[in-house]
Amino acid sequence: MHEGDEALALHALGWILSDEPRAERLLGMTGLDPDGLRASLGERATLAAILSFLTAHEADLVACAGALDIPPDHLAAAARRLEGHERIAP
């Protein structure tokens, strides 16, 4: 995992949770309830699901990237790394 991926996913989660309908979509997609989400924030699969939620909806991806002041492809790359689909060179 890239060093900043976990922090990036948590920042993205903060953005997601700032909008109730978007937060409800995330919970529906992950199958978690708010307590389950909180309890699993240290798990790679949950962090990957947070970023995958954004990559599945381009408008949210672009809006979140803008709010975090990063390029959208940084969120997408972090999602791939957390999912185990992208390796980091040593």
Description:
The structure is a single chain. The chain has 90 residues and is mainly α. It contains six helices and no strands. It is globular and about 30 Å long. The termini are close together.
Distance separating the two termini: 12 Å
The total beta strand count reads: 0
Q: What is the chain-wise order of helices and strands? A: HHHHHH
Structural class: mainly alpha
- Uncertain residue segments: none
Number of domain modules: 1
Which percent range describes the beta-strand content?
under 5%
Q: What average pLDDT do the residues reach?
A: 91
Number of helices: 6
Cα shape: globular
Please give the share of residues in helix: over 70%
Radius of gyration: 12 Å
Major β-sheet, in short? none
Brief descriptors of the model:
72% helix, 90 residues, 0% strand
Topology:
Elements: H1 5-17, H2 20-30, H3 34-39, H4 44-55, H5 58-68, H6 72-83
Helix pairs in contact: 1-4, 1-5, 1-6, 4-6, 5-6
Could you give a short description of this structure?
The chain is 72% helix and 0% strand. With 90 residues, it is mainly α.
